[in-house]
Amino acid sequence: MISHLPPRFRRERVGFTLIELLVVIAIIAVLIALLLPAVQAAREAARRMQCTNNMKQLGLALHNYLGTNNVLPPAAQGGMSYVYMNYTGYSFLLPYIEQTSAYNTFNFNLVSSAGIQGWSEWGNSTGFALQFGVFLCPSNRATGEVGATTSNGWSVPKAAVTDYLFNGGANRYVVKGFGETGRSGPFGFDTATTLAELSDGTSNTFLMGESVGGNQRNKYYASGSGASRVCLPLANYNTAVPVYYDNLMYMAYGRSRTWTQGGVAARIIGALVGRTVDSVGFPYKLNDCGSESYTDVSIAAPGAPAPAEAQKLTNFRSAHPGTTNFLFGDGGIRAIKDSIAPSVYQGLSTMGGGEVLSSDSY
């Protein structure tokens, strides 16, 4: 039936105009923009909490090891000239994080004909690839990225890595008996530190700190030392071969290493020990670019004068904006700000430096 009503009384369907639609879309976009940072912040808070829990577990493992053996484990032990070591402290901690079966995959009696580099013997290839989440910061990654074929003929698709390094203190050397021993940290090569040696107090001494690995997080590396130290792109390290920055936690080797990665020669740089000074004792800021590891010494006898050449070691840095988590000797985990004064930072890293520190200063 045809309606005879005037036009003003007829009902007509009216849709959104283009302007109204754009306004609605703009409002939704603003709401999403406001919500997204909150979601990301919540996720980072959860990851940070998991990172803290990881370090708490490692702290319990270190104290249980200490209770069993009366000493803390070495960062690496049993080598020649303190560079070609046999095994690392990370493998010694496995039974104390409920990974006894993984610990049993290592044959600690294996060494080369020269009595060194037991970690690289073929019988330890299975253990070399065993990765556990407790050693990784979730804000950084969930797995390692370095695969390798060693000169002994065995391969791993991905080597086990760690984002948490042992504290070597503010000594220019991490070899036991060398350098400024009063400024040493609790961990080094062939160390066996007792609780009594933490004379600065367990609540004033780092045991471990974050030092995140992986090329995604480490775009730069430290070149030079002292006031001339600069951060250069990782790609500039050695243009002849690819470079991977990572902390291979079972590789007891005190310097960067070249091996085969995917059938191609590659350079692996990283460390087992972190430090608060560089190779000449110059302050290393938190979250500065990382350095390669190079711990050779020319005088092997313990107690002999320190050699003239300095040792390169990496520093502490994190994936958390503005702070880095540290495990203290009392088992506590504290987030240290990047802005911490160098003297306080170094004082917390030494175990017997005698520094007087206030908790208000960090």
Automatic annotation (TrEMBL):
Q: Which residues form the DUF1559 domain?
A: 40-342
Q: Which domain of life is it from?
A: Bacteria
Which NCBIfam families does the entry link to?
A: IV_pilin_GFxxxE, pre_pil_HX9DG
**Can you name the source organism?**
Singulisphaera sp. Ch08
Protein name (Swiss-Prot/TrEMBL)? DUF1559 domain-containing protein
InterPro entries according to UniProt: DUF1559 (IPR011453), N_methyl_site (IPR012902), Pilin-like (IPR045584), Pre_pil_HX9DG_C (IPR027558)
